[in-house]
Write a structure and sequence with these properties.
Helix content is 27%, strand content 33%. With 221 residues, the protein is α+β, with helices and mostly antiparallel strands. It has 2 domains: 155 residues, Electron Transport, Fmn-binding Protein, Chain A (Pnp Oxidase, Chain A); 39 residues, no CATH class. Strands 1, 2, 3, 4, 5, 6, 7, 8 and 9 form a 9-stranded antiparallel beta sheet that branches. Strand 3 and strand 4 form a beta hairpin. Helix 5 crosses helix 6.
Amino acid sequence: MNPHCLAYTHPMNIADLRKSYEKAELSEDASQADPLAQFERWLKEAIASEVPEPNAMTLATVASNLRPSTRVVLIKGYDECGIVWYTNYDSQKGQELASNPFAALQFHWVELERVVRIEGRVEKVSDEESDAYFHSRPLDSRIGAWASPQSQVIEGRTVLVTNAAKYAAKFMLQPPRPPHWGGYRLVPNEWQFWQGRKSRLHDRLRYTQSGDQWLRERLAP
């Protein structure tokens, strides 16, 4: 351990920052037997409550060297097949998913004192799904998919601006979907739902797949 780490004093004592969670509860009787139905209920409540970016989720992947990494992406669809988002296949997350097709997602709705965690295998969505979503995006976003060599080192923002101008002139109002851009679907085999409670005695339910059924269990917080 670096001895200098012990000598540093924070300008504010972040260890004393605390919050009492008292907004709601999550019981077995009140929760859905199917985790997708429970997720849909909570997502709709987050949207109705107008929490900031209720569709934002943290995506965790693991590289071939076993080092994990996280980033925030936006959910674009969900059904019994899984959770869908779109990105650059050549990005860091794309490369990590190519070598290790398992990942974890997390939604954190701070204002509702809720967390949803989802784990499972990741696959690419069909070209038809990727095409349909890509062409529904605003024009600037479609050009941006061509302009940004995501996760690569660039000399400055001028590179992005220049690329955007080049592809806007090339494709005009009809940019096709780049071959390096499309959707992923995480197929869940485990869900966790966390509801903050008073005295740190939080509610935490885990759903694990057992054949065609889901086993619901309460975990200690």
